[in-house]
Specification:
This protein is mainly beta and 67 residues long. The chain is built from no helices and four strands. It has strands at 2-7, 10-20, 39-47, 50-57. A hairpin with a 2-residue loop joins strand 3 and strand 4 (50-57).
């Protein structure tokens, strides 16, 4: 599922990206999602010099978590 996310650190910056569940699998339906849901942004390497942003919902929000 593609989603448009807004970064908390820069409200005027938005990214169109894939939405992944806590297990890293793509989210297939909008069930349980809401517009203001926090996500963690991670980058997936798809080629030597290409990294794509991926939004992960529901995981890694504990203090000290890294993606």
């Amino acid at each position: 599922m593609l989603v448009l996310i807004e970064l908390a650190e820069q409200r005027d910056l938005r990214l169109l990206t894939n939405l992944l569940g806590p297990d890293g699998a793509p989210v297939a339906t909008a069930d349980g999602l809401r517009a203001d849901m926090p996500v963690r942004l991670r980058f997936e390497r798809v080629a030597d010099d290409v990294w794509l942003p991926q939004a992960v919902v529901g995981a890694g929000f504990a203090a000290g978590a890294h993606g």
